[in-house]
Structure formats: C-alpha cells, structure tokens
Design goal:
Blueprint (H helix, E strand, L loop, with lengths): L12 E7 L7 H14 L1 E2 L2 E2 L2 E6 L3 E6 L5 H17 L4 E2 L3 E6 L2 E6 H9 L8 E3 L6 H7 L1 E3 L11
C-alpha cells in the first residue's frame, strides 16, 4: 500500500538505487510507476506499507514497513530495474560514491575517492551521498554527510 513519504514510519527500511543518468524529463512517469510498485508490494501475500523518495533526479530510495521477505525485496528490485532498463536508464552499483561538488554530484569508485582525498584533490569536509542508510530515520539524519563523518574515514590514511 502506497503512502506519502511523510506518513511512513521512521523505522521503515530503505533501499537505494543509483541511476546512471538523471530522470528529469520523465520524473512524473517514474513517480507514477513507483507509486504502483508501492501500491502492489506484498510479502507472503501480505500488503506492505511502502513509499519512495527521488533525490536529485538520480537516486530512488524505496521505503517499506513491516517484515519483508527477501523474495519480495528482489521482486521490487527487478520491477524497478527492468522498468528503468526499458527506458534506457541503468541502475549503477552502490559501490559508486556520490560526492557533492559545485552543486553537482560526481561519482567515484571507493579506491578513486580515497586517492583523491589522500592527494588533497577532495577535502574531508566535502559532502557525500550516504547510500548505506538503513531506514527513514537514518535517511533523514544521514543521507548527506561530510566525508569526515562517514564510513569512508575508515579507509583514509
């Protein structure tokens, strides 16, 4: 069952999809599709309370309450991925790290980002998109973090 983002609980789990290119021109169509995915999302024939958020036209974050089976999660992933592929948009790996620079998002592989930070091409105060968020509360508090407050600090010398 689809609910507006504001109405889903803070405990709702989330999954992040990074799109290879922005969906600006077709955002309304994608939103309609995602509402249908949420509306029809079930787990073991039980209705799931679900919502989504689109960030910067390049991230889709799906939210769902209650116990969700792995099969149900896989099914929603496949529906979303196949829809995006049908309109020539690929979902890219969450190992890509979105860095906010000059009001734009640049993507780096982890090793690339570490080299850039160590070479001082990117500051530890630079903000990143934290795709490791686990639920709505975490999303609301930690979606955008400076590198020095993120998990990447464990890899920087």
């Amino acid at each position: 069952m689809f609910v507006e983002f504001e109405k889903i609980s803070n405990d709702a789990r989330c999954w992040v999809y990074i799109l290879e290119k922005p969906i600006s021109k077709i955002k309304c169509k994608i939103e309609d599709f995602l509402k249908q995915v949420c509306q029809n999302w079930t787990s073991h024939k039980n209705e799931i309370i679900a919502s989504f958020k689109i960030y910067n036209d390049q991230f889709i974050i799906m939210f769902a309450e209650d116990n969700i089976s792995g099969c149900s999660i896989d099914n929603s992933y496949n529906l979303i991925k196949n829809k995006l592929i049908s309109i020539n948009i690929n979902v890219i790996s969450n190992s890509n790290i979105g860095i906010l620079q000059n009001n734009k998002i640049s993507f780096f592989e982890r090793s690339q980002l570490i080299i850039s930070v160590n070479n001082r091409n990117i500051s530890m105060e630079t903000e990143m998109i934290n795709t490791t968020v686990k639920n709505k509360d975490d999303f609301n508090k930690n979606w955008i973090l400076p590198l020095n407050k993120s998990w990447i600090v464990n890899f920087i010398k």
